[in-house]
Amino acid sequence: MALLDKKYTDRPYYGVRRMTVYLQRDEKVDVGKDHVRTLLRRMGIMALFPTRNLSKPNPAHRVYPYLLKGVEITRPNQVWSVDITYIRLARGFAYLVAVIDWYSRRVLSWRLSNTLESDFCVEALDESLRRYGKPEIFNSDQGSQFTSEDFIDRLKAEITVKISMDGRGRAYDNIFVERLWWAVKHEDIYLHDYQDIPECKRGLEKYFGFYNTERRHQSLEYNTPWETYKTGMVWKGDDGRDRLMQCTLGRA
Which CATH architecture group holds 72-231? Predict the structure, then answer.
C-alpha cells in the first residue's frame, strides 16, 4: 500500500491497470490486478482516469457547475478550494482535508480523520470562514462530503459565496490542492513514517507552519504563501508600474 500511495501522489491519473504494471515490472511485486483494485479501494484512492475516489458522489445531493474555467486569480480570498487525501501511517491510516486560498497557496485550515464522514470537512471549512472571512468562489470536487447538507448549508450561510464543483473525472480542476498534496507527502509524510494519528497531527502542524511561512514558491515570485496572502503581492512590472500577480485557469 505504501508503494501505491507514493505512485498515486506522483501519478494521480494511474488506474488499476497501470498500477498493476508498475508494481509488477518496476517494483518486482507478484500481485494481480484484482488485488491491486482491492487495495486501492481500501485506501480510498481508486483512480479510473484521471480522477480519484476519496470523495464518492451521492446521487441524492445537488452538484454545482464548475465556475473557474478561464478565471483570472488576482487577489486573496477570491477563490478557495478543499480536497481530501489519504495518509498512510505505520499503524493504520488517516484522511487529511485542507482548505487552500488559490491566489496565495496559503493553507487556511486542515483536519485529520480516520473516517470519510463529512464532520471533519465541515470543521475545516468552519475554521477557515471564522478566521479568514469568506471567498468569492468556493471550489470542491463532487464528493459526498462536499455536497452534504451540512457542508453546503455552511457555505450558503455566507450568502455571497458562489459554490463551484469540479467536473467528474477532472482531477486537475483543483490543481493547486493537488500540488499541495504532492508537497505534503514528499516533504513530510514519506520522510517521517508517522506511527499514528496523534503523531501525524503533531508533525503536520509543524509542516503547515513551515509551508505557509517559510516555503518559498517560484510561482509566487519566491514569496511565501503567508506573505502573498497578507500583502496581495504587488511588485514592479517592466514598465515600472505596480503589478498584482495573477494567473489564468483553464481546462484542457
Answer: 2-Layer Sandwich (3.30)
